[in-house]
């Protein structure tokens, strides 16, 4: 029994399985790269800022419970900054720890800030969000706007922070 190699006339036409797989992989890699660059850059930045803000507030809440101190959250929506202030009597003022430093959000997002509970007895005072040593936080809503989506950081019914994604009207 002898093996015969196919001569040039009998050679099969078409692509091998490996050639097809290589082409499919190249197309998949290019598709991932292109889809990652199309739109949503500002939305990704807004989502990142919302998650970062929520993480910092949760860390400050934990610090308040551990240290027994109370803090006030200070937000400047126009400057896109936020920080925390200690409410201890003698040491009242900004906290020196890097967790409590002044933080600035990205330039490509917009902020809207609303404190849902304020002191009705003193309307001349600007409403503040307080983080108590018991882990309680004054209800608030921070809306971080991207191009197509808003990310709303707020306190849920159980007192936990959450981020909700909402499509911008018109999209």
UniProtKB/TrEMBL annotation:
Localisation per UniProt entry: Membrane
GO cellular component assignments: membrane; type II protein secretion system complex
Membrane topology annotation: Single-pass membrane protein
Transmembrane helix keyword on record: yes
Pfam families: N_methyl
Biological processes per GO annotation: protein secretion by the type II secretion system
Main location, first listed in the record: membrane
Gene3D superfamilies recorded: minor pseudopilin epsh domain
Keyword annotations from UniProtKB, A to Z: Membrane, Methylation, Transmembrane, Transmembrane helix
Bilayer-spanning residue ranges: 20-39
NCBIfam families noted in UniProt: IV_pilin_GFxxxE (TIGR02532)
Protein name, as recorded: Type II secretion system protein H (GspH)
Lineage of producing organism: Bacteria, Pseudomonadati, Pseudomonadota, Gammaproteobacteria, Arenicellales
